[in-house]
Design goal:
single chain, 341 residues, alpha/beta, Peroxisomal Thiolase, Chain A, domain 1, 2 domains, 5-stranded mixed sheet, 4-stranded mixed sheet, 11 helices, globular
Length: 341
Amino acid sequence: MAIFLNFYKMDNLNAVITGISAFVPDDILTNDDIAKMVDTSDEWITTRVGIKERRILTDKNLGVSYMGIQAVNALFNKTGITPESIDGIVCATSTGDYHFPSTASIIAYQTGCVNAFSFDVMAACAGFLYGLETACNYIRSGRYKRILFVAGDKMTAITDYTDRTTCPLFGDGCGALLIEPTTEPVGLIDTILRTDGSGLPFLHMKAGGAVRMPSYETIDNHEHFVYQEGRAVFKRAVTDMANVAMELVERNGLQKKDVHWIAPHQANLRIVEAVIKNLEGDIDRVMINIQKYGNTSSATIPLCLWEWEEKLKKGDYILFAAFGAGYTWGASLVKWGYDSY
């Protein structure tokens, strides 16, 4: 361990993303399909949230771990690294397979990561940012060489398909990132994370936890699904995502034009467009795929990176921003570490 610490010169050590993969289910739920369930239409959904379709994991016996396993195995095949070389797995999810054990532990076992510690992080739709900062800090400590960061959600498991206001929003998906040490001037540059507990009444799941345990009443009242007051959430998401992103850019001595790519959480196209407008960003530099995946919660940003990977160049500045229940929100600034595979 001492050799490792000396080799990486702790004062220059940083954590960098060195590979990314993802998994989305094959089954597609279109707006026309949803229009058969509730009083809505393709036009209504497209106009208000910008979503045309979403991927859904239809097998009720499969959860986030299944998607994470597919993403991790694809990452191993892509990068050529071995499962035994992984030191730890951090999984960001709000829809874990079980209350316990952790979804990360299931992924570790099923992918052969026999030497890895594992745990879950839960920060709703901002989970990617919280998990990325956590995973990178294990690398920055100098004690670990390879961390897998998995971010995904099976949002359809907590979606009420009798609620026309929320059921068009969500889809399923998962991303996997390999994070390693570097002494080059690349990697995770800076992160700002914020929380405001006053957001609880506006975006939460009413039952299923220790405060309101499952019962016939909670099931009959549809309390085990996402509950959202859209207007309140929209207003805070637009303001807080834009403000924290701009704060992050400025405190790192950059200007808006210095950011090559913006990868915002894909919650609602109108939110994304409003945030970009506030940042005075060029829409051609914004990663947007909500139209075909919907809101996959913690998976939205890694799905964007996965799709745009071939366009990313070493040294590109990428700005992440997300907002979720809690309220939790934040932004991260990354200097991309490699050219496309």
